[in-house]
Amino acid sequence: MSDAILKMESISKSFDGKEILKDFDLEIGRNEFVTLLGPSGCGKSTILRIIGGFVKPDAGRVLFEGRDITALPPEKRNINTVFQKYSLFPHMTVGENIAFGLKLKKKSPEYIREKIDYALKLVNMEGYEHRNPESLSGGQQQRVAIARAIVNEPQVLLLDEPLGALDLKLRRVMQRELIKIKQEVGITFLYVTHDQEEALMMSDRILVMNKGIVQQEGNSKSIYDEPQNAFVADFIGDSNIIGGIMVRDRLVRIQGVEIPCVDEGFGNETPVDVVIRPEDLEIVSPENGYLRGQVQSVIFKGAYYEIKVESKGYEWMIQSVDPAPVGETVGLTIDPDNIQIMHKPVSADEEVIRDE
User: In degrees to the nearest 10, what's the CA dihedral of 257, 261, 266, 271?
Assistant: First the structure.
């Protein structure tokens, strides 16, 4: 990446003899919003802390605008971090919390005044300067923490699950605020989360991680529509994942039924994994479906019904605006474009990575 502002080269890190990262590489472009997405323990927060200077790697180096900053302490890096725990000083007002880093840098009172006003306006907290942090809601405290980081004018802002402690409604509000801030300020964001919807909504680029390894990298649409393995398909949204046989190009056999698809290059009579998103399955009359099954349950989710259909020992999940009666025999059909074919694991290591 020619315009990379940040690079990690061959980073390795272990804790108590357990390897978290091994020969890990990462490049982040200027003004890019990159999200590290994965389950707990996959190494994403360790990456953030190494970049921020809070953890020293066992091997490898971190480059910032081409300069090696691996050994620099956090305060010497033009990088700020916002954690899930906001760490606001309770004995200081909102304005004093925002100004803290600027005072350490011995900025003038006029400069600090301008920056406080700017930051409060940016996070929609005008009029809160003299409030005590303990009187604020969780969302308001998070905005103050972000304002405190932004006034230092970092070129890179690291965010470690910053919205994890907020309720769903507040998280949605803060997600939109972060996108707006990123657009207005023009800095690089590196965001860590285990929330798939959050990552899909906010990111320019997502790295899906498991056990310290990037499983797939791409934009939101490519990762959701074209998962490269079973782990990604299962982790990103809901999926039906079932074994099948690739009969030949553009034809797959699922539960003994040959169904048209669009994938090629898997060979003939090849065992494969088949991924079908719940929203892509359509319930039809039994005689009009590729597959046939019995409705096991119907749950109203607000925007759609979640319907479980049992067919030959496999329970299909369907998301539809039209319910079907429990116990009814139905058919299931699918557009060929919405069938995703993946290779089955070919080694023990790949099996662990994909199925963990």
Answer: -30
Same domain, 64 and 163: yes
C-alpha span between 294 and 331 (Å, rounded): 9
In a 13 Å sphere around the CA of 159, the CA atoms on its Cβ side amount to: 33
Burial code (b: 16+ CB inside 10 Å, e: under 16) for 278-288 equals bebbbbeeeee
CA distance 117 to 125: 9
Same domain, residue pair 262 and 141 = no
> What are the Cα distances from residue 282, in Å, to 233, 251, 290, 314, 335?
19, 19, 10, 16, 9
Give the pLDDT confidence of 281-292 residue by residue, as tens digits: 999 999 999 999
H or E element, residue 37: strand 33-37
Separation between Cα atoms, residue 213 and residue 353, nearest integer Å:
8
Tens digits of per-residue pLDDT, 89-113? Answer: 999 999 999 999 899 889 999 999 9
Which of these, 160, 137, 141, lies nearest to 97 by C-alpha position?
141
**Distance between CA 164 and CA 27 in Å, rounded?**
25
Q: At 264, which CATH number?
A: 2.40.50.140
Domain boundary among 193, 225, 257: 225
Classify burial at 352, counting beta carbons within 10 Å of its beta carbon; exposed 0-12, middle 13-18, buried 19 or more.
middle
DSSP character for 229?
S
